[in-house]
Amino acid sequence: MKTYHIQDNPFVVPTSDGKIIKEHFGLASDGNSEISIAHMVAPAGWSEPFQTPEFDEYTFIIKGKKQFIINDEEIVLEAGQSIKINKGTRVQYSNPFTEPCIYLAICKPAFSMDLVNREDP
After folding, report:
1. pTM (predicted TM-score)
2. What is the pLDDT along the chain (121 residues), one digit of tens a residue?
3. Are 68 and 82 in contact (CB under 8 A)?
4. Hey, what's the torsion of the CAs at 57, 60, 62, 68, to 10 degrees?
5. Cα gap 27→119, rounded to integer Å
6. Residues 120, 9: Cα–Cα separation, whole Å
7. Beta strands in 43-115 (DSSP E)
């Protein structure tokens, strides 16, 4: 029995806002509720509503920039930077810049629409 799993066919989450989400491990890809790891591409001009997730979220920027509004504080991360946002924190994610942002998102426990608590736009 193998003690590892190579993920070469991540679950592509359907979106309607141009964002590309490829979940390598997590609820949608392998049923793991403890952690999710996703490769993301946020197109230029993308944003989503404020949310107050019930999971910790770690973000590592690979290329481009991403804007975070956390408790009314605006933060911009660039390639090579990372952030941990604790569960229960009100946050909005966006890419108001002219280039796509490529990043990794890790959620613990795993991302779930039932736990994200998005506000109505």
Report:
1. 0.94
2. 899 999 999 999 999 999 999 999 999 999 999 999 999 999 999 999 999 999 999 999 999 999 999 999 999 999 999 999 999 999 999 999 999 999 999 999 999 999 999 998 7
3. no
4. 70
5. 22
6. 32
7. 46-47, 56-63, 65-70, 73-78, 82-85, 91-95, 101-108
